[in-house]
Amino acid sequence: MARILAVDDRPINLQFLASLLGYDGHSVLEAADGQEALAITRNQHPDLIIADIQMPTMDGYEFVTHLRNDPGIARTPVIFYTAHALEAQSLAETYGVTQVLNKPAEPEVILNTVSSALGELSFTDRHAQSPGGFEPPKKIPDELIALQAVSLRLSTLIELGLELASERDPQRQLDKFCSSARSIIGSSYAALGILDEEKQSIRTFVVSARDPENSNHNIPPAYHGVLGTVLTQRRPLRLRSPFPDFGVMDLSPNGAPVNSFLCVPLLSPTDVYGWLYLIDKLGAEEFSAEDERLAITLAAQLTVAYENATLYETVARNAEELDKTRRNQLEMKDQFVSHVSHELRSPLAVIHQFVTLLLDGLAGEITAEQRENLDVVLKNTLQLREMISDLLDITRAEAGKLLFEQHGVSLLPLFTELERNYRERATQKGLLFLVQEPRGLPLVHADPQRLRQILSNLIDNALKFTERGKVSIRASIDDQPAFIRITVSDTGCGISEASLPLVFNRLYQEATTIKLSRKGLGLGLHICEQLVSLHGGRIWVESRKDFGSTFFFTIPLRIEEIRKGEDT
Predict the structure, then answer these.
(1) Is the pLDDT of residue 551 over 80?
(2) What number of helices (H) and strands (E) belong to the chain?
């Protein structure tokens, strides 16, 4: 007979296939996944492979792909044995697999399919009757049929557990469980009741019936007869006809007679959620002790999955409410900051206007001391105006309302403008202001006003915290080819190692720099980070205390520039 490789990640399924195929005289090799099966096939060259599809490490499709691409084993016939045979049939043919068995299949069907794949006479024909007509047909032993039933139950339990755990909708979870419980245990009717929060009545009632006409049923009271006994005593109850006065007949769909009854509670260590009851065992007069144990196992599976699903639902609902609250708070904050900023801007504009009039001598001559005092007022007025603008920018950025319009921008005129604006200020402090003109660089995809704002913030900081030496800016192609990197460096006081991870945080100011920064709001670098992020770039800093700082940020190239680079 043939040497056959069985591939399945569940030992009970391998045990069944090995016993069944061995019964027909075949020798059987075993593998737990496609990767192990591939190694065995290359070493031992089996005559046939029976493989599951859904397996860890390497599934059935990937296994067959490697198999067909290896000339030494490519012609090995394969049978897929899967619980999803209908879905797999058409796809399997593209992998050179023409025979697909639905799991579970009757033992005789499996053996006949194996014979067909091997080009032999079928098991049924070989063992139908001896030529003399005296020997009875050879039958599959009851032990193999029982082993298949155990294999089916275990496989279904595992699959049901996985499905329940992955299902986040409690109603779909309960529907799936009820039909699966009826199928696994083997009953004509199953009903599932979930208690309300007060544990007094049924909140959700689900039924599964072999006969569709019995699918509609009035919801029984939560503690009706036998159901109340199961809930209050928190233990299963298994009965057969004739029944004690437990009200079992009242639970029958359409008033049909009941021969056997099984009910189990849905329990957790701390709570009871409801009950599952089944009516009329298929193929037997009553439910067995094994059926009861299986129902208890199923109920435990559902309880854990249902608790997780309801917890997930509660967490999701709370998260949505928190998010709504947070959005409302942000909206209120946005409105507050906008309102306050507007109210501050009006008197600030008036102060600025009248101070300017006084300094220009339009209200009469002023003394040197008065001019000096007015200069201080004007300077602080301008600083306050910048603070208000920063507050508005942060609020709008976080609310997604910041005006932002990107298009192709040349860096050369921007750098020229910055050099003109900051050179005199640097000279007054005795600093060199070095600008490397970005000639030959492609256009960037940026909002010119926001790009100017980023650079102005960084240069302002560099000049503010540098007492001697130089401040320089330059631009170059970044390590990421689709970006330009812009650098602002100084020889100032630098940033301590402890503060480096915090400098872009909102309102953060290093303690030793507060005096130099004239006690601003600490929003400048945070605004830079927000604006760079809106452009799709990134910003970072390298610095050592007392040795200066270098800030880097990237801006994307214009799309046409990227395509031009790809074409070349």
Answers:
(1) yes
(2) 15, 17
The Cα–Cα gap between 509 and 520 comes to 9
* Helix/strand/coil percentages in the chain, nearest 5: 50, 20, 35
| DSSP assignment letter at 181 | H
Cα–Cα distances (Å) from 161 to 204, 312, 386, in that order, read 21, 17, 61
CB neighbours of 102 closer than 8 A, spacing ≥ 6? 82, 83, 85, 86
> What's the Rg (C-alpha) of the chain?
39
d(CA 277, CA 327): 47
In this predicted structure, the answer to whether residue 531 has a pLDDT above a threshold of 70 is yes
The pTM assigned to this predicted structure is: 0.40
Residue bearing tokens 């208890």: 296
How far apart CA 177 and CA 204 sit, in angstroms, is: 13
> Dihedral angle at the C-alpha atoms of 298, 301, 307, 310, nearest 10 degrees?
-80
Confidence category of residue 514, pLDDT binned at 50, 70, 90: very low
pLDDT, tens digit (0-9, with 9 covering 90-100), for 266-320: 988 888 889 999 999 887 889 988 889 888 888 887 888 777 767 777 777 888 8
Minimal CA–CA distance to 226: which of 188, 262, 202?
262
